[in-house]
Amino acid sequence: MRDPFFYGPSQALFEPLCDFLSLQSLSYHIHEILIVFCIYHIIFEYIAPLLSASLLSKSYNTLSYESKLRWNMHCVSMVSSVGICVLSLWTIFRDQERRHMDLGERIWGYTGAAGLVQALATGYFLFDLVVMVRYLKIFGLGMLAHASSCLLTYTLGFRPIFNYYGCVFMLYELSTPFLNIHWFFDKLGMTGTRAQLYNGLMLLGVFFCCRLIWGAYSSFNIYRDVWNALHFDAKTHDLSTNGEIMKFGGDRLLPTWLVMLYMGGHVTLQVLNVFWFGKMIAAVRKRFVKVEKKEE
Fold first, then answer.
1. CB proximity list for 85: less than 8 A, separation 6 or greater
2. Any transmembrane segments, and where (predicted)?
3. Are 273 and 211 in contact (CB under 8 A)?
4. C-alpha to C-alpha distance for 284 and 192, rounded to whole angstroms
């Protein structure tokens, strides 16, 4: 399936640089990355503060400088997570070329729709990394590691490699809207309410299913594909005769450094997911244990 958006004039402008960096499909999507980055920057710096101060003045205007930054970041995260999940699910169900990919195509293949998902994710993680670096003391090293790993993983995908899996791992973000709502409840004076309890239960359930269960299953699939490609490359070279999907396939090599970087990023994300799940359980319990004690 083709990218629903037109290829911008940046394709010819950035193609030599992208080819030099061995990111051959990046030139087709770099305009989308830059546009998304600018949109999220505008939301973070201008739209979120303005609308929040106007519509929720009693809550937003009393926040500290640090809490306002986090509030603005949660606004961007809400927009990004909803948009990327809808687009990922649409691509998974509608992109027939992607759905029928074989081993070689899952590793080296490319479709424009999957490339669009990859571009929007890269644009967000580029924005996320910039914010994490600017406000490192506020957001911490864990969030910086998350932004760095995600940006590295999705940028490397423009070789292209594992273009198939971009939509798959973006479904991690299905839990993010519930996390944002949970945080907003605290700042709106709704801590310990039934609404926060129900949202907290949804957050834990969706996070466990999409990040731990789905994440482990998807990681197993990509590790299996990498293992097969490395150990059965003769068989792999006989696959994937679809010229359009494999137009960036090249010599179909998997350099050791690339496998290490890509898999290292996934391992980092999986470890962070387990750590954050424990923190979420503790946070939800803390809020509602306090409420029960007050009622006693």
1. 170, 171, 173, 174
2. 33-57, 69-92, 107-126, 138-156, 162-185, 197-217, 256-277
3. yes
4. 9
Q: What is the reported pTM?
A: 0.86
Residue, of 51 and 250, whose pLDDT is higher: 51
H-type helices in the chain, by residue range? 10-20, 30-42, 48-55, 57-60, 65-94, 96-99, 103-108, 112-134, 136-156, 165-170, 176-187, 194-207, 214-231, 233-238, 256-295
Alpha carbon distance 5, 66 (integer Å): 37
Rounded to a whole number of angstroms, the distance between the first and last alpha carbons of the chain is 60
Residues, the chain, total? 296
The token pair that represents 12 in the structure block: 């010819």
Cα–Cα distance between 280 and 272 in angstroms, integer? 12
Q: Where are the domains of the chain?
A: 10-295
pLDDT tens for each residue of 216-233? 899 899 989 988 888 765
